User: Fold DUF2284 domain-containing protein from Blautia argi.
Amino acid sequence: MKKLEEKLLQAAEELGFDNYRIIDTMAISFEERFRMYCEMNYCGNYDKNYSCPPACGEAKELERKAKQFERALVLQTITPVKNILDDEETKGIKHRHNQMTWSLIEGMKEDLKEYLPAMAGPCQICSPCAMELGKACPFPKKRASCLSAFCVKVDALAEYCEIPYYCEGEVAFFSILFFHNK
Ligand code: SF4
Assistant:
């Protein structure tokens, strides 16, 4: 029987991720000060999505949750983009990346007893997020916060994994699946 980590890497390959690595969670840098970028609200989701700050919890709290898992599957897609500043275009690509990540999780559910995903961007299950309508989240178990909310230092992560961070004419998205290797 294949070991869990081999199965995860094989699933990542089969789903078409461009890069995938399994590393120790302790190798990931979390920088609490990055939370100020969420507060600047360039993405427009601050206080509008249950998966985003402040509703998702303090940066240290998310870091603590991630560090309860000793291993991390880092997933990356690299996609050609016409205009990286075109929000609609990159949103679609990001959505595809996150769907691929959820497909991997779905396919590995029997092997993964406990896990914690960190996605490329906010939860997009409902449109708009029920938070904007003042309603409760209908899928609290399915929502996941983004790497920014976790305050992951993504450039350092890419360097550690020896995968690209910036790609000219392309957009690189990252997600992380924290898991126990048991
Ligand atoms: S599942 Fe829906 S309500 Fe819950 S965080 Fe995601 S978008 Fe918001």
Notes: Residues 49-51, 123, 125-126, 129-131, 137, 139, 143 surround iron/sulfur cluster (CB under 6 Å). The radius of gyration is 16 Å. The first strand starts at residue 19 and ends at 24.
